[in-house]
Design goal:
The protein has helices spanning 27-37, 40-44, 59-90, 92-95, 110-125, 140-143, 170-181, 185-194, 207-216, 228-232, 243-253, 286-293, 307-312, 350-356, 366-375, 390-400, 408-413, 420-425, 436-445, and strands at 9-15, 18-24, 99-104, 130-135, 149-153, 162-164, 167-168, 200-204, 220-224, 258-262, 273-275, 299-304, 324-329, 336-337, 341-344, 359-362, 379-382, 404-406. Helix 5 (110-125) packs across helix 19 (436-445), helix 12 crosses helix 14 and helix 14 packs across helix 15 (366-375). With 447 residues, the chain is α/β, with parallel strands linked by helices. The chain has a 7-stranded parallel beta sheet with strand order 5-4-3-8-9-10-11, sandwiched between helices. A 7-stranded mixed beta sheet has the order 14-15-13-12-16-17-18.
Length: 447
């Protein structure tokens, strides 16, 4: 090659109707010119009269030099991309950001709280992870604990519709479910484009997330203690029209890449991982809450129930228990206090309240039971409302939390208060050190 091309040659580049003369003594310098200052696309479109190679080259030699220069430029770029992919493949954690899309059920706050606990544990293992969250659960649940995430308000599923605090409206549930399961192809396509840079999709029983993951050709992870097809199957005898939505939901859940089940499990299924209950960690504010709310000798009862139930409950009976103070955390409550009752809005961090409590009054929420087990707090479990997941919650509470149960009517007339003295006098369960969020985070980090 050095014998073909003269030692000195120059290039003239036409730009903005004027010639700019660039004299380069060596071939390596003209390569640098092409690589750093010229776009390859423009280089290919240059007219031959715009670039001259001087002196003493025949047309054949000149075009031969052009082909050599172009080939070398392309080769340099091919080498760059090949080496980059090899390098990033050997060291992905240091040089690539792990992006995770989460589609979370907005039916209550429990699913969102469970996903937050998983994401907290994942962030500890991989601080660089970035999270895309799609849910109708309020953003404050995620903002309390997470950073480096993007929140998208999206109804990700349909849960049971309630006529009042304890009565299901199955007709309205079926109507909403049928309309929801007719996914708009344009919506699915748009969501698939939004998550196309993610490495995985985590779905807490959201069937829409699984459909989007399949469209985007991204691996999916289903996190559940029950699935909607299992729950709605309990209403088939009363409403046979649930059969078609159940079949559709079962088909959507069958598309998942990896299946993880969380205790208390309502139905055993084939899963790549079964883990302990998942709970958010307390932040150390339990003692401050007790000092703020309690007089000497008083016991603290934490109430974690849906707002319609809280609004329907009778609270007058609590005044007969001078040694008791009730702290209510509700979806739409505003903070107010008297000698026996304190009401808090949803911004109160519930794991700290449960850690401070002597007894927790709650429904069959898996995340609430997990936080009670973590704190070693006995429960007064509300059962008998006809929820299919009650049986698994009851068995878990009896085995790990002790405590007692109360029926819905006892909440309405205030009889639930009569169970408190025995619960205060009884032994506290041993706090559980097992947190399934760590196991799920370890699985996700290995994807």
């Amino acid at each position: 090659f050095p014998h073909i091309i003269p030692k000195y040659f120059a290039a003239f580049y036409w730009q903005k109707h004027s010639h700019k003369k660039l004299t380069l003594p060596y071939y390596s310098n003209i390569l640098q010119l092409f690589e750093e200052n010229l776009i390859i696309a423009r280089f290919f479109h240059l007219h031959s009269s715009r670039l001259f190679i001087v002196p003493g080259l025949s047309p054949d030699s000149r075009w031969f030099c052009w082909r050599i220069v172009i080939a070398r430029c392309i080769l340099r770029r091919v080498q760059f991309f090949v080496l980059s992919f090899l390098f990033l493949g050997l060291f992905p954690c240091k040089f690539m950001i792990f992006r995770l899309a989460c589609f979370v059920s907005g039916h209550g706050f429990g699913h969102a709280a469970r996903v937050v606990a998983v994401l907290e544990a994942l962030r500890q293992r991989s601080p660089e992870v970035f999270i895309e969250i799609f849910t109708s659960a309020p953003e404050f649940i995620f903002a309390q604990s997470l950073q480096k995430y993007r929140y998208h308000f999206l109804p990700a599923d349909v849960g049971p519709v309630w006529k009042d605090a304890f009565t299901l409206d199955l007709a309205a549930t079926l109507d909403q479910l049928e309309r929801f399961l007719h996914f708009d192809p344009a919506t699915v396509e748009t969501l698939a484009r939004q998550i196309d840079t993610c490495q995985a999709v985590l779905c807490d029983i959201s069937p829409l997330g699984l459909a989007v993951a399949k469209k985007a050709k991204i691996p999916s992870v289903l996190l559940e203690q029950f699935t909607w097809d299992w729950l709605y199957s309990h209403y088939l005898a009363e409403f046979p029209l649930f059969a078609q939505p159940i079949e559709t939901l079962a088909a959507l859940y069958s598309r998942v890449t990896w299946h993880i089940q969380v205790e208390p499990i309502c139905r055993q299924s084939q899963a790549v991982l079964r883990c302990a209950p998942i709970a958010r960690r307390p932040r150390g504010g339990a003692q401050a809450l007790r000092e703020r709310l309690l007089r000497p000798g008083q016991k603290l009862v934490a109430v974690s129930l849906p707002a319609p139930i809280i609004n329907a409950m009778s609270w007058s009976a609590i005044s007969a228990h001078a040694d008791c103070h009730v702290a209510i955390v509700g979806q739409d409550a505003t903070e107010a206090s008297d000698d026996h009752i304190s009401r808090f809005g949803p911004e109160l961090y519930r794991p700290d309240l449960i850690a401070a409590a002597d007894v927790t009054l709650c429904g069959p929420s898996a995340s609430t039971l997990a936080e009670c087990a973590q704190a070693g707090c006995p429960t007064l479990l509300v059962t008998g409302a006809g929820l299919p997941e009650e049986q698994a919650a009851r068995e878990y509470a009896r085995q790990h939390l002790g405590g007692d149960e109360c029926a819905p009517h006892s909440l309405l007339n205030g009889d639930w208060c009569s169970a408190l003295p025995a619960l205060f006098a009884g032994p506290r369960p041993q706090p559980s050190a097992a947190n399934g969020g760590l196991a799920v985070a370890s699985f996700l980090a290995g994807l």
